[in-house]
Amino acid sequence: MSTALATPGLALFMLCVVMVALTAVVYQFASLGNPLTAPWAAARGAVQLTVVSLILAAALIHLWSSLLVLAAMFVAAAFTAGRRAKAGRSAAWLSIALVCGIGLVIPLMLVSGVVPMTGVALVPIGGIVLGNAMVATALAAKRGLDAIDLRTGEVEAGLSLGLSVRDARMEVVGSAVSDALLPGVDQTRTVGLVTLPGAFVGVLLATESAVQAGAVQILVLVGLLLAQTCSVAVAIELVARGVVHRPGTRALR
């Protein structure tokens, strides 16, 4: 009997169909909304994962194609971060924050030799780091811009005291964006006690070695702390200097 987890086949397909159907039934009887919500989400997710799996299966064979995949992921992350920050065209500058995060962590991992220079290693690690840096960057920029909009009086008070525009804005931006780093810090603090993160579970299932899984997970978590910290620091600097601003707002510096 095979010990592989979730091997593609009829059994997996039927199990997923049954679970989706049961979810739809609960939706219907508990009045949670349209019962077709879950089936539609599952079907869409299955199609997306199938396409991505086929692309990655071909791309990970070569290093150059793996780098193209990472580049495409970066573009998507930069676009998503900008959209969530609601900063209009100026949000394009947030890509600098993402570069500072992933551009420091990934080279360190490669130079150290801990992460091999192969597509099968670069794409998963790079994707995890990039995705978390994106979330932190978007949250920091949004919170910072919201703080400037809501606490305009405090900014003006700072300016009246002789502070520069950057310093006056930083007084309200700095305290507002601290929450952007909390998810990463809390995840690191509680790993293994409250949750088993995806990297740990993935390596554990692949290698059946808890020690190897723990080593990979701590590498990922420490890398995320550095990437998110750098990205948030750059993001709030861009907001404070007015480089990233809300549409219709004059970009003072």
Automatic annotation (TrEMBL):
Presence of keyword Transmembrane helix: yes
Keywords associated with the record: Membrane, Transmembrane, Transmembrane helix
Subcellular localization, as worded in the UniProt entry: Membrane
Cellular compartments per GO CC: plasma membrane
Pfam families (UniProt xref): UPF0014
TM region positions: 12-30, 50-79, 91-115, 121-141, 190-206, 218-240
InterPro entries for this protein: UPF0014_fam
Topological relation to the membrane, as annotated: Multi-pass membrane protein
Keyword Transmembrane helix: yes
Sequence similarity: Belongs to the UPF0014 family.
Protein's recorded name: ABC transporter permease
Source organism per UniProt: Rhodococcus xishaensis
